[in-house]
Amino acid sequence: MEALDSHLLGVRRIELENVFYADNGDWIESLLVTSSSAYDPETMLEPLSQVELFYHERLSDDQADQHVLRLTVIAHEPYPFLLGLILRVKAIPNRLVLSQGRFEGVATVAEWENFRALADRIESQFGRFELLSVNQVETTGAPLGSGQLGRVVRNELSRDQLTALRTAYEMGYFDTPRRSSADEIATELDIAQSTFSERLRLAQETLLELIFSADENGYEFKN
């Protein structure tokens, strides 16, 4: 992540969305990169021997004030890798962001001793550790990679279907009682009511297929 931060043009922040350990210090990483300048990731990453670009997806248009790309890379992270330190003390990484040469993260630990061990290791290996806040919670919070369903849904739905679904949700179409009718939402979208209903039906059908196809493939659902 540090190599990308120093090499890519105008990087503002790099967020680690998901990561898997491969072998011999290699990690498969999904990174959300926000920058002030547009760039071609294949060209920019080619000189980096420790990073291999596997896939990239542009999430903002070229006219935007900030440019957002999702990069999937195979990276050889130097030892110690911050994520590795977090995992070794049995902490759950919830968020990890690199911005302006500084890592900021959120992690969940079961015991205060685990937190102290994590803080000591980070300070020993990297020279500095700053605690910004501590919260006592009943749940572990969302670990890295827990946003995969949202990404799958966005990839499966067309832009028109996603817009229809989001607008219906925001205007209270799914509330009880409904705060907006199909005709009102269609007017907001400047389309015919029949067109809105068809887009919404297709979006709902796709969502149900995603849910129940996962069930058929062996995922367990709790009542």
UniProtKB/TrEMBL annotation:
<keyword id="KW-0804">Transcription</keyword>
<dbReference type="Pfam" id="PF15915">
    <property type="entry name" value="BAT"/>
</dbReference>
<dbReference type="InterPro" id="IPR007050">
    <property type="entry name" value="HTH_bacterioopsin"/>
</dbReference>
<dbReference type="Pfam" id="PF04967">
    <property type="entry name" value="HTH_10"/>
</dbReference>
<feature type="domain" description="HTH bat-type">
    <location>
        <begin position="158"/>
        <end position="208"/>
    </location>
</feature>
<keyword id="KW-0805">Transcription regulation</keyword>
<feature type="domain" description="Bacterioopsin transcriptional activator GAF and HTH associated">
    <location>
        <begin position="13"/>
        <end position="140"/>
    </location>
</feature>
<dbReference type="InterPro" id="IPR031803">
    <property type="entry name" value="BAT_GAF/HTH-assoc"/>
</dbReference>
<protein>
    <submittedName>
        <fullName>Bacterio-opsin activator</fullName>
    </submittedName>
</protein>
